[in-house]
Amino acid sequence: MNKVGSTIGYLAAIILPAIVLVYYIHVVAEAKEQALAIARAKEPEIKTLTDPSTGLPVDPVTNMIMGDGYATVKKECARCHPTTLITTYRADKKGWTDTIRWMQSEKGLPIFKPETEEVILTYLTSYYGK
Questions:
Q1: Within 13 Å and on the Cβ side, how many CA atoms surround 106?
Q2: CATH of the domain at 65
Q3: Which residues pair with 96 in a beta bridge?
Q4: Of 129, 124, 125, which is closest to residue 74 (Cα–Cα)?
Q5: Confidence class of residue 15 from pLDDT cuts 50, 70 and 90?
Q6: Which of 24, 30, 46, 78 is 20 to 30 A distant from 16 in Cα terms?
Q7: Whole-Å CA distances, 24 to 10, 30, 87
Q8: Quick check: pTM over 0.90?
């Protein structure tokens, strides 16, 4: 009886928890595999944002309208400050020109080539004008 009792005790203390642990690991691995299969099966949804007033696409990174001159404005303006300063400000051509002149005199913005400045001002007044 003593040998039977020790065998049962051994089963209860060592083998049974090991079986439960192996079963738990198996269940977790199966759940992970199922979750990965579901994730792989779904196509990522690509949303194209569109500006309601122009119908043009909006860059999801900069939140700026991707119209004529966008690449120049992104290159020249977004390298120094957040684009929310552009997208939330409204001005006519004189107001945007004054803003550029202020940045050049107070913030060290280099003078643009005339054709670059014209592209920037046309973009800003067309899409973020008063």
A1: 6
A2: 1.10.760
A3: none
A4: 124
A5: confident
A6: 30
A7: 21, 10, 53
A8: no
Segment (H or E) for 20:
helix 16-41
Q: Of 129, 115, 106, 112, which Cα lies nearest the Cα of 77? A: 112
Same domain, 62 and 123: yes
Number of domains into which the chain is organized: 2
At 49, give phi and psi (nearest 5°): -80, 140
Pair 77, 110: CB distance under 8 Å = no
pLDDT tens-digit series, residues 53-112: 999 999 999 999 999 999 999 999 999 999 999 999 999 999 999 999 999 999 999 999
Check whether residue 68 and residue 10 sit in a common domain: no
| Buried/exposed code over 49-70 (b: 16+ C-beta within 10 A; e: otherwise) | eeeeeeeeebeeebebbbbebb
